[in-house]
Each structure stands twice: as C-alpha cells, then as structure tokens.
Amino acid sequence: MEIQNNGKFSIEQLTDQYLGSPRRTQVRKATDGQAANGLSFQDVLQLKTLAGAGSLKFSKHAMGRLADRNIELSDSQLERLESGTRKAEQKGIRDSLVIVDSLAFIVNVPNQTVVTAMDSTETKENIFTNINGAVIM
C-alpha cells in the first residue's frame, strides 16, 4: 500500500534527514528493564538530556526553508552555528543573526531556536530585520 503525502514532510522526517539522527524502524521487544539496544531507561534518559543540553532546535519555518532550498548543514557548519549562538547568549543578544559560510540564520537565543534560514540568494540585499545583534562565524 502506497501513501502519498503531497510533498509534505513531518518535522521528525526533516530533522532526521538534515541533522542525521536516524530513527529505528524495527521494533524489538525489550526485556529486564532494558531498551532494545541494550541500554536501560536511565541510560537513555541521560543520553537524551545531554544531547538536548545546548543543542539548537529548528522551527517548522526554518526546517521548511532548509528543505525548500536544498540546504544541508555539515557537522562543522552546525557546530559553528551553535558556537555563534553561545557567543550571542554571552553578549545578551536575544534575536541574533548568525552567519555561517554563505548561510544566514536568525536565532532566538533564549529559546535556542533557529527561526529562519537563508542562503546566499536571499541575503543579496544584506537587509536583516528584527534582530538585536549579529555573529559572523
């Protein structure tokens, strides 16, 4: 049975595709308080907590922009985006423009959320609104 999604994707699908966090498609029965991969619930919880600490989230709008423009962030670019966000936070910036290579991101620093993403074709005019600071990485 084939299901058509009319070109619409869930946030999870796009997150998996662009941020490289593959999801398991097979379900195995867990035994003795351990997950199917052999980790206990406590281990999984600690890993998720550590992974979530300091990592950026991408809004639905930003994910759509990345998908529409076929922008794929490398690990290095994502690392520099996170570093730029940390620097903005240290300076007290709330809504920051973070430029990484030829890509521009508007980041809501307190929420650690990328609000939108632009490539070089959109940044030609060099006009950015609703920001109170910029970080060039």
Descriptive report:
This protein is α/β, with parallel strands linked by helices. It has a domain of 81 residues: YaeB-like fold (2-Layer Sandwich). The chain is built from 4 helices and 5 strands, in the order ααβααββββ. The chain has a 5-stranded mixed β-sheet with strand order 1-4-3-2-5. α1 packs across α3. The protein is globular, with a radius of gyration of 18 Å. The model has no long low-confidence stretch (mean pLDDT 79).
Quote the distance from N terminus to C terminus: 47 Å
Describe the sheet with the most strands. Answer: 5 strands, mixed
H/E order of the elements?
Answer: HHEHHEEEE
Low-confidence stretches: none
Pfam families: Flagellar_put
Protein name: Flagellar operon protein
Task: Please provide a brief summary of the model.
With 137 residues, the chain is of the alpha/beta class. It has helices at residues 11-19, 41-52, 60-68, 75-90; strands at residues 57-58, 95-100, 103-108, 113-118, 133-136.
Labels describing this entry:
137 residues, alpha/beta, YaeB-like fold, 5-stranded mixed β-sheet, 4 helices, 5 strands, globular, Flagellar_put, Flagellar operon protein
Topology, element by element:
Blueprint: H1 11-19, H2 41-52, E1 57-58, H3 60-68, H4 75-90, E2 95-100, E3 103-108, E4 113-118, E5 133-136
Parallel strand pairs: 1-4, 2-5
Antiparallel strand pairs: 2-3, 3-4
